[in-house]
Design brief:
single chain, 228 residues, Arc Repressor Mutant, subunit A, eight-stranded antiparallel beta sheet, 27% strand, globular
């Protein structure tokens, strides 16, 4: 059974601890796997200059790009804070974490942080993979505290930007290894499994990814109205 795990990890184990110390109001969000390419990170704080200075002085990250412009919080946020976007390259702590998650077949769904703590939402094929990952994280002393373990239906569907079809497609793609490196299934094989053309599947995946990225960057996690 596909399982979703939410856990907390101290920032001094993963990164950005110095930024939290310098800017207590600092918060951030990252959508999806961080991987080898520096991700775009949505941040909040007193102002862009203060956040940028703290990030540039933090030895756990490198500011690859300071993306100008501001985003307002969407309806899914509890505050009316402005969001500042940065492309950040993380050090080996987060890379090791992702390696340990992916080793038993897991994937990072979201990562966010506030008050000196990272909150990660992870997806696994089954409970055995969850146990294996937890043991690995304990072995490497990540200081993990598990907050919640649920089946895939335990996700708050009211806060996903995906349509039902997109949601089920992405879950199936993950379960069958489409997002693994190397891929466990080709686009054509996945399309056959879902009973659609590979062109239709490719478009569905692109729209689903676009919805997830847009939601993470704007924090506007309202359900989509159209199901392509």
């Amino acid at each position: 059974m596909t399982t979703v795990v939410e856990l907390e990890i101290p920032a001094d184990r993963l990164g950005l601890a110095r930024t939290f110390d310098r800017v207590p109001a600092f918060e951030f969000r990252i959508g999806g796997v961080i991987g080898d390419s520096p991700p775009i990170v949505s941040t909040t704080g007193p102002d862009r200059h203060t956040v940028a200075q703290a990030l540039e002085a933090d030895p756990s990250v490198e500011v690859v790009a300071n993306l100008r412009g501001k985003l307002r919080s969407g309806p899914g946020d509890e505050t009316d804070a402005e969001h500042y976007l940065f492309r950040l390259a993380f050090d080996d702590g987060i890379k090791l974490f992702e390696q340990l998650v992916s080793e038993p077949g897991g994937a990072v769904l979201t990562a966010r942080g506030r008050d000196g703590t990272w909150t990660m939402q992870l997806l696994f094929h089954d409970r055995e993979a969850v146990s294996t990952c937890h043991e690995l994280l304990e072995t490497y002393d990540f200081g993990v505290e598990v907050r919640r373990v649920t089946g895939i239906d335990g996700l708050d569907r009211s806060r996903t930007p995906l349509t039902e079809t997109q949601y089920e497609t992405i879950c199936t793609a993950h379960e069958l290894g489409y997002f693994d490196v190397p891929r466990g299934i080709t686009l054509e094989e996945l399309a056959a499994e879902l009973g659609v053309s590979h062109q239709a599947l490719s478009e569905r995946l692109r729209r689903g990814h676009a919805a997830l990225i847009s939601a993470e960057l704007t924090d506007g996690l309202s359900p989509a109205a159209i199901d392509p």
